[in-house]
Amino acid sequence: MLLVTNMAHNETPGSVRIHTAQGNEWCYNAIEKAARFYDCNRSNAIAFACEAVNRLVRATRAVLERDNLTRS
User: Which residues form the DUF7692 domain (predicted)?
Assistant: First the structure.
């Protein structure tokens, strides 16, 4: 669950909280793994991981939509 608080003038929140209790403990573990992978703090790790997923999905779709893709 994501909770956004303190909206700034430009519509960017001043802070974001991620709940890690009540069945969402995996969120904390995933964030910690991302922080270790990117070698940065948890806040940056979340942003880096989100950007990476977007790029990965776009690239995967581009490959899968190619006409010359060999099908088995």
Answer: 16-70
